[in-house]
Amino acid sequence: MAPSMTDKIDIAFGSLGQGGQGDLVVFVGDDLALGGPARDALGGSGADLVAKAAASEKFKGRSLSALMLPAPAGVSADRLVVVGIGSEADRGKLDWPALGGFTAAKVSGRTARIVFDLPGVATGPEQAAAFALGARLRNYTFDRYKTKKKPDAEDKAGTSLTILVADQAAATREAETARGLADSVILARDLVNEPPNVLFPEEFAKRASELSKLGVEIEVLDLTRLREIGMGALLAVAQGSVREPRVVIMRWNGGTSGEAPVAFIGKGVVFDSGGVSIKPGAGMEDMKGDMGGAAAVVGAMHALASRKARCNVIGAIGLVENMPDGGAYRPSDILTSLSGQTIEVINTDAEGRLVLADVITHIVRTAKPKAMIDLATLTGAIIVALGQDIAGMFSNDDTLAQNIHAAGEATGEAVWRMPLIPAYDKAIDSKFADMKNTGGRHGGAATAASFIKRYVEDTPWAHLDIAGVAMSSTSNEINKSWGAGWGVRLLDRLIRDHYEAR
């Protein structure tokens, strides 16, 4: 399989003052003042040149703006690229990955030296690594099935960045961890972007199993084992497809032996036709991304293993295909879940919660996690409520919810806590079974979360409805892909800040 285009960007670190060829990138605020290393790199007339060119081009140094001009005489460079970082207030809240992504785009397909000295801003190895992370993620393109490459795609293969910093060795070390995180996000993006005829449950399980190379313990539950265990809800979703279901359990044992793990649970519906309650044809092609939660869990486990996280974490994904053949489950069927609770099927397109119910029950019983987070492209209702820039969060634990929110703020993968009240739980009561699998149109995201809550027992739990952010993603400075790999950075940061041994 051809590599993703991000593999063709080369990023290295050098020392401030280091010479070289290609473009030269410097940073200015809204006052257009250059930092000392940038002035040194440009020579005596550099500041005047920037000021004159800025006046001519009406460049104001606003955050994430750029001015390109020929390099001054005597400077060994092809072009001078001046990147704005905004006002003093802007500089106090710089998004380092976004700045890296923006800068990388301005020199895409070229060789460039980047003077990583920002006037009025403290920069160190951590900021340099985050900048490099953004550059790598911005460079990602999923084009492995294109037999004819566009000329600009071929040009991207030549992108080579040297980031000039005060402490080259420290920045290089820090960037290695960031490189592992970038690879993890890219893994999740690749999974979401793959077509469903390639990434069916067995193939998904195979790819997740490759994490064993990083020291992750892998357990794959096949159809026979799932029947033995009694995952009646998950199996019902899968029974209309010729593709057999799988559940993959990934264990990273980086913490104290015997300590309860943190659990990540991912919905992995590799294609969702809606089943007998079939979806409209328009837009159904997007349902290859209905496994975005499972992709995020695999990516997060990759990230933790790559940096040898000092924590015990378990990741579990339920992999099914929801199809409408003669053996498919139907509205009015009553299912018996692994927990023993019965479920009246109202709509076969409310299938993800059925998958999650059984996987969550299995993990609660076998792993007894200290905290559990599920991620699922669960409802269109959450998109109506929050759009495509923020995920909905439901939780039974205030501390866990606060920690997830903080991790989202730190990474830019934002969440917004939604309510869980008794009325939502009552809406899924059934006349014929313990519950029904949908509470109707109103409050759809909340009633879906209430359904899942019935399976978590007393475990601290959060449900992230990522339908708006995981697929058909909003374009931004670090992502131009249909699948964003959303959630990988958030989960990694959550473990780093709140669960990892110091």
Explain the overall architecture:
The chain is an alpha/beta fold and 502 residues long. It has 2 domains: 5-166, 3-Layer(aba) Sandwich (Leucine Aminopeptidase, subunit E, domain 1); 186-498, 3-Layer(aba) Sandwich (Aminopeptidase), CATH 3.40.630. It has helices at residues 36-42, 46-57, 88-91, 96-106, 125-138, 151-156, 168-193, 201-209, 223-229, 232-238, 292-306, 352-367, 380-386, 398-411, 422-426, 444-453, 488-498; strands at 10-15, 23-28, 66-70, 79-84, 111-115, 160-165, 217-221, 246-253, 262-272, 312-322, 334-336, 342-344, 371-376, 391-395, 415-417, 435-436, 461-465. The chain has an 8-stranded mixed beta sheet, with helices on both faces. A 6-stranded mixed beta sheet has the order 1-6-5-2-4-3, with helices on both faces. Strands 11-12-16 form a 3-stranded mixed beta sheet. Strand 11 (334-336) and strand 12 (342-344) form a beta hairpin. It is elongated and about 80 Å long. It starts with 9 loop residues before the first strand and ends with a helix.
